[in-house]
């Protein structure tokens, strides 16, 4: 059904609208609260029926623009942001849907690289809101927080309109709410153990869920994977009839060197070599994300045909130079240096530990750590232990957060009692970590790493004045 053809009988008797020409903070807060009252992202009933029903009532906006879909366990948001930046540099208007957000729900839906403004946020919600009770009533399970935002994202991209939508999976792949679009290009970043309650406890089970984004006739860009995950993905691609390119075989990172504020890469793309590419992000993992992003853009602009030629290298360089990924090894202050990183599982934390060692060379690094109770907290602490002199454990404001005292007991089992301090309030924890770092006479070699979850990083950014 075309969006213009929706009949009046589909609307509830009263359609609530916010008619003020100027959107107020209170109005936006009311919208956000209405969305937040639905089931959260970590408590969902897996199904595509509800989101398909909602999008059908909206006129199937997910089919209005081509989609580049980004799945995987770690690196999805950074990879999506790189793809977005590259496409915009090539003159395309982009929509970007990522999750979770740091400070505002509007961050999840971006147009031309920027979060949608308050007027657009309100207008899109008003477009979607009348259909929510209809779909809720049909299925017995209300649409979730994430499903509503997914519908808003696709609706915003269709209405803009954009030339291409870069859409990050929320969780899994096969039954993720975003997986209602037939993506022209699908990216699968490295797969690791996470969200075991929903995705399974083995790499094979998780990879099978992620493989659901590989579409018949589409193009798949596969990051370097553990062998078990790679085998699952390749079988799924063969069954779906998806053409694939694999990092390390058809494309990859040729060289990388440290540079002020980032790193300089040589990348082998699907259609050629790209050297002297400055990426203003830190860590080998971000270089690999860049290789996947480049391959995805080559595949998209070439219609899945590498033989259509190499991209303009200068445009590629400009696209990567403009990339940002807040909360990913982000330096938020100096003297001592305070770094924020949103790693939230052992594989991600291992990448963070390696990157911070390589990029900063701290002689003394103190950690601030707060995590969700449903994560592999011990695994994350074990990944951090070799690089931290001490750790101050804390607790974010999330209802899912692990209790600070319980977290402290786990930290003691990994670090030893003499290297652990407990500060339940995050502001106190940051102050304590800075004090410990400042105990070193040479502040040029000391640092503080705040990590453990995206919520921890968001709260720390606010406390430390980040935008």
As residue ranges, the low-confidence spans are 1-20
CATH superfamily of the largest domain: Mur-like, catalytic domain
What multimeric state do the chains show? single chain
Assigned CATH architecture of the largest domain: 3-Layer(aba) Sandwich
Mean pLDDT: 91
For the largest beta-sheet, the strand count, sense and barrel status come to: 8 strands, mixed
* Whole-angstrom Rg: 22 Å
DSSP helical segment count: 16
User: Span between N and C termini?
Assistant: 41 Å
Tell me the domain tally: 2
Helical amount among residues, as a percent range?
25-40%
CATH topology of the largest domain: UDP-N-acetylmuramoyl-L-alanine:D-glutamate ligase
Strand order of the largest sheet: 4-3-2-5-1-6-7-8
Task: Provide a descriptive summary of the structure in words.
- The chain is of the alpha/beta class and 467 residues long.
- It is built from 16 helices and 17 strands.
- The protein has helices spanning 25-36, 49-57, 76-89, 118-128, 132-139, 145-159, 196-199, 203-210, 227-240, 284-301, 313-321, 346-360, 377-384, 404-415, 426-438, 454-463; strands at residues 67-71, 94-97, 109-111, 114-115, 164-168, 185-188, 219-222, 243-246, 252-259, 262-268, 273-279, 330-333, 337-340, 364-369, 390-393, 420-422, 446-451.
- It has an eight-stranded mixed β-sheet with strand order 4-3-2-5-1-6-7-8, with helices on both faces. A six-stranded mixed β-sheet has the order 12-13-17-14-15-16. A three-stranded antiparallel β-sheet has the order 9-10-11.
- Helix 2 packs parallel to helix 6 (145-159) and helix 3 crosses helix 11 (313-321).
- The longest helix is centred in the middle third of the chain and has 18 residues, at 284-301.
- Mean pLDDT is 91; it is low at 1-20.
